[in-house]
């Protein structure tokens, strides 16, 4: 397999650190996939799954959002806004993937925040499909009463208070990911979570310039019953936010080894969940060619 570091330039001039994984020599390129990660999760986390896709002829791009990971150095902290992860970052990755594909299908694998923000990317309309993992529009009222305390404290106390007192939010220490996150981004997220319509609320001014209502493409959404980050009501809210998407929702009951919010990307699932995902992508690739 061929792995190449890259700098992806957004329309607003920001530069993102990315890695492109090409299929091995002798394996034809069949499609290209962008892996849009979760809040506070390094692009390194997705490398094994990206390599799996590349081994099967699907070139994969992983990247760090502006203000995080290897993209933090080149980011002006004064202009950080969480919505730009969708309007600029994911959009720029789709542009690069489309250029690489040369007419072949292009997909986005959206994990958590990556799934939430896809509708902000204008170029998402060029996709042949998408796959969502751990996808939701979180709001404290969407958790069952017995599990409501922790999201309430996070959204209504920790994010507003720490976000004002410190430039960096200790997401890793709080179990929200593997990276420290600029507080400006967390404050944006906190404001979204406190609104029933999440980022689609008119007061945020995002949906009018985005493609949520118009995005029409097939999406496979995989849910896991032990994902405490995604109560069913929050997942349903996200699905409703993409009204024209052709949804295929697969709900997995987890009875033995935990999967949770992050476990899908463990290579222990290579022959199970990863193969299931690949089968779906292969089906969409064949459909795109007909």
Key structural traits:
290 residues; 7 helices; 30% helix; alpha/beta; Rossmann fold
Characterization of the model:
The chain has helices at 47-55, 84-101, 113-116, 149-165, 183-193, 232-241, 273-289; strands at residues 2-9, 15-22, 31-36, 58-63, 106-111, 129-133, 168-169, 181-182, 218-224, 246-252. The chain has 290 residues and is α/β, with parallel strands linked by helices. An eight-stranded mixed β-sheet has the order 1-2-4-3-5-6-9-10, sandwiched between helices. It has a two-stranded antiparallel ribbon with strand order 7-8. α6 links the parallel β9 (218-224) and β10 (246-252). α4 (149-165) runs antiparallel to α5. The model has no long low-confidence stretch (mean pLDDT 93). GO terms for molecular function: carboxylic ester hydrolase activity. InterPro entries: AB_hydrolase_1, AB_hydrolase_fold, FrsA_esterase, UCP037442_abhydr.
- For the record, the CATH architecture stands as 3-Layer(aba) Sandwich
- CATH fold-level assignment: Rossmann fold
Number of helices: 7
Shape: globular
CATH top level label: Alpha Beta
Q: Supply Rg.
A: 18 Å
Largest sheet features: 8 strands, mixed
Structural class: alpha/beta
* Beta strand %: 15-25%
The total number of structural domains is 1
**How are strands sequenced across the largest beta sheet?**
1-2-4-3-5-6-9-10
CATH superfamily: Alpha/Beta hydrolase fold, catalytic domain
Total strands: 10
Distance from N terminus to C terminus (CA atoms, Å) equals 28 Å
Low-confidence stretches: none
The overall average pLDDT, rounded, is 93
InterPro entries: AB_hydrolase_1, AB_hydrolase_fold, FrsA_esterase, UCP037442_abhydr
Family: Belongs to the AB hydrolase superfamily. FUS2 hydrolase family.
Keywords: Hydrolase
GO molecular function: carboxylic ester hydrolase activity
